[in-house]
From TrEMBL:
Signal peptide: none
Protein's UniProt name: ABC transporter substrate-binding protein
InterPro entries: Peptide/Ni-bd (IPR030678), SBP_5 (IPR039424), SBP_5_CS (IPR023765), SBP_5_dom (IPR000914), TAT_signal (IPR006311), TAT_signal_bac_arc (IPR019546)
Signal among keywords: yes
NCBIfam families registered for this protein in UniProt: TAT_signal_seq (TIGR01409)
Keywords assigned: Signal
Provenance organism: Nonomuraea monospora
Main location (coarse class): membrane
Length: 534
């Protein structure tokens, strides 16, 4: 979201019915259709995996322009990058390329394409396809994935039909895992008139182990093994059927009981974990960047005052929120990054529960009789957290009105830059990767929507942060780079413009008697590239 663009441009390129729908996708794609009726096959068919995805399937399937949890998970089975990453360790491995780069500190990386790689329509994968894909990602109209490449990647050049060269602006070792975001797309398909709109609507033609066989946005997407695939992670079953079921009760029912149709479901509600375990299912959590954040409108007083923003964070009883709303499956934020992240360090400002400090900061800022209308997405676990925020703020003298609403509706208001005070929503940059540079660029980027929503873009403090982030990106010495990362994370914590309250655990359930090779991931969706029916 780094380039300036009009609302009309954003609607055109976001692949949604509006920018709100696009941002709904970035918030773990939590809007969507009703419980699915698009089931195919029976749960006893060992040539079929039936999966339940707890997020909507009505967002863009354009790999260069989507953050939809459902679509991104499906895309990882249909498309390949030059390099891809393990879904849990995030270690890169050669996918369409034949080898990892020999020197990750070099400013040019050359890749040779896998011999015999084919698109799902039978055409060969060529260097032209790679150049075509990166030209789209680096283009001025890319409002999502371009943020993860434009700061360090200058261009991608064709060497010959089966090899390409990536030219960097400066050494950037983190580029290896980052390349999994750039799913290579066939030029002969998506250069045609109207093809990008078709991709947004669900058309998928990749080179990966599974090809898409049907796409019903409010119901299901189905896949089958691609016979022409010759890469490192071949299909393990003949067919997959992924159901989109946003309603929690219906989702749990689909995987429950002896006649359960599905073998795996993600986004398991905390209240159902014990029930499913008692039925013999494996239920495991993935800890990562998934979090609830508060975003302040700094154009609305008194939220332009850093002391007020900090006070409202100090006032929240996060342990009560974790115990009551998250059933223990959460951690109070001590940095923008989650605990357990390789670059995590307690920030210089940590918002431990301190209502007296909150009162003192409000008094120091000259604020009394503050009334807040807290707008929020109606994602179930976010809604569960809101009463704790309200009671905590009321306890320090801040009258609080809660306004949870459909994600798309909330961000329609944001897109129209309607007046608001504070927003609570969910986010998880781990869908794209793990490194701190990527995670911060998801929200904090010049010209980005989040910065426009908060009215922080263009301020002296924002420019200071972006300069600090750029300096860290260019530093090749690991120790020095880590120090610079910690410095800008401290600054982000202090400013509290858009900042996590809690990081929570995402739960996945599966029937280990019917499915093996599954690992719970710390971001929405599932990965079945190594799963097998048993």
């Amino acid at each position: 979201m780094s380039s300036e663009f009009s609302r009309r441009d954003f609607l055109r390129y976001s692949g949604a019915t509006g920018a709100a729908a696009f941002i709904a996708a970035t918030l773990s794609a939590c809007s969507g259709g009703p419980a699915s009726t698009g089931s195919v096959g029976a749960g006893t068919n060992k040539d079929l995996i039936t999966a339940v995805i707890g997020y909507g399937n009505d967002q863009s399937w354009d790999p260069t322009q989507t953050a939809s949890a459902f679509a991104m998970a499906g895309i990882n089975h249909v498309y390949e990058g030059l390099l891809d990453t393990d879904p849990i360790t995030r270690e890169p491995y050669p996918a369409l390329a034949t080898a990892l780069p020999a020197d990750t500190n070099a400013t040019t990386w050359k890749f040779t394409l896998r011999d015999g790689a084919k698109w799902h329509d039978g055409q060969p994968v060529t260097a032209d396809d790679v150049v075509f894909t990166f030209e789209r990602i680096l283009g001025p109209d890319n409002v999502l994935t371009g943020n993860f490449f434009k700061s360090w990647l200058r261009e991608v050049k064709k060497v010959d039909d089966r090899s390409v060269e990536l030219v960097f602006k400066f050494p950037f070792p983190d580029a290896a895992p980052r390349l999994t975001i750039a799913k290579i797309m066939p030029k002969h398909v998506f250069s045609q008139a109207g093809a990008w709109d078709a991709a947004k609507g669900g058309k998928a033609v990749g080179s990966g182990p599974y090809k898409q066989t049907a796409h019903n946005p409010k119901s299901n997407t189905s896949f089958e093994a691609f016979d022409g695939y010759n890469g490192p992670r071949p299909a393990t079953v003949a067919k997959m059927n992924w159901l989109t079921i946003v309603d929690a009760a219906a989702r749990v029912a689909k995987i429950s009981g002896g006649s359960a149709e599905a073998q795996i479901a993600d986004n398991i509600p905390y209240a159902n974990v014990d029930q499913l375990k008692q039925q013999g299912l494996t239920v495991e959590g993935g800890k990562g960047m998934n979090h609830m954040f508060l975003m302040f409108n700094t154009a609305a007083k008194p939220f332009d005052d850093i002391r007020v923003r900090q006070a409202l964070h100090y006032a929240i009883d996060k342990q009560k929120m974790i115990d009551v709303a998250l059933k223990g499956h959460g951690t109070a934020s001590s940095s923008f990054l989650n605990e357990g992240h390789p670059d995590h360090k307690r920030a210089s400002v940590v918002y431990d529960y301190d209502p007296e400090k909150a009162k003192a900061l409000l008094k120091e800022a000259g604020v009394s009789n503050l009334a807040i209308n807290l707008m929020a997405v109606n994602v179930s676990w976010i809604a569960d957290c809101l009463p704790t925020i309200a009671s905590s703020w009321e306890a320090v003298g801040v009258k609080t009105t809660l306004e949870p609403q459909d994600t798309a509706a909330l961000f329609t208001k944001m897109d129209q830059f309607q007046d608001y005070q504070v927003v609570a929503a969910a986010s998880n940059p781990n869908q794209f990767g793990m490194d701190a540079d990527l995670i911060l660029h998801y929200n904090y980027v010049p010209g980005g929507l989040w910065m426009k929503y908060s009215h922080w873009d263009g301020t002296d403090d924002a420019e200071k942060l972006f300069t600090m982030m750029d300096e860290a990106s260019k530093e090749t010495d690991k120790a020095k780079r880590t120090q610079l990362i910690h410095e800008y994370l401290d600054f982000v914590a202090e400013q509290a413009i858009l900042y996590p309250v809690v990081h929570n655990e995402l739960m996945t359930a599966w029937d280990a008697k019917k499915l093996s090779g599954v690992r719970a991931q710390p971001y929405p969706g599932i990965n079945l590239l190594q799963a097998k029916r048993t």
